[in-house]
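Readers outside the structure-tokenisation community will struggle with the description of the input data as it stands. Showing the layout once, in full, would remove most of the difficulty. For illustration, here is how one protein appears when written out as sequence plus structure tokens:
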Amino acid sequence: MARHSHSEIWLFRQLFDQKSHTYTYLIADPKTKAALLVDPVLEQVDRDLKLICELGLKLQFCLETHIHADHITGTEALRARTGCQGIVPEHAHVACADRYLQDGETLTMGTIPIQAIATPGHTDSHNAYLVNGDRVLTGDALFIRGCGRTDFQSGDAGTLYDSVTQKLFTLPEEIRVYPGHDYRGLTLSSIGEEKQWNPRFKGRNRNTFIEFMNALDLPDPQKIMEAVPANERCGQVITAS
């Protein structure tokens, strides 16, 4: 993976939705005023737009790590109010997206490179994003001391194990890890820290990881029946007339 200079002055904010425990990330180039939101949440659209306005930024892209089952994306609402583009991983079942990012492709926003790393397993299409060469947004592929489940939306535990161990864990250990969710108040980790302390992966091989994930027996997310179809429409909610 290409490394980039860290000398650029750029803006990075971690935002949180308490109901779904979702992190949304605001990335911006203060020089060009271009801004991007990763995994926006529909109920937080007003919050996100207020912050973007206060900082004098222009929202250029909404970028999804995957098709979410636990919340509805704010992309469609943000696209309607700002004219931004909605971008999803390659092969995501989203016909309304403006662009699809494939493995290794780089989205450049102002002077900030954002490189897609295909990390399927939690769902069948999922990207992590290496931002400016020094931090990675891991979505639901890798949490701090955990990982996303693999029992719906064509998830596959063996594929997730391969994505984390062969792609994310081969990044330099000092790369900072920013996950898509956290349920314990943790905000930031690193590749080296997760390799040493993540109990889902430490001490497990591919077979024992699959056995562990297949035995989790978790209840479905409360919003799965409405969130998945809405997110396949970029977050457009269809209400009964």
Remarks:
- The radius of gyration is 17 Å.
- Residues 1-7 have pLDDT under 50 and may be disordered.
- The chain has six helices and twelve strands.
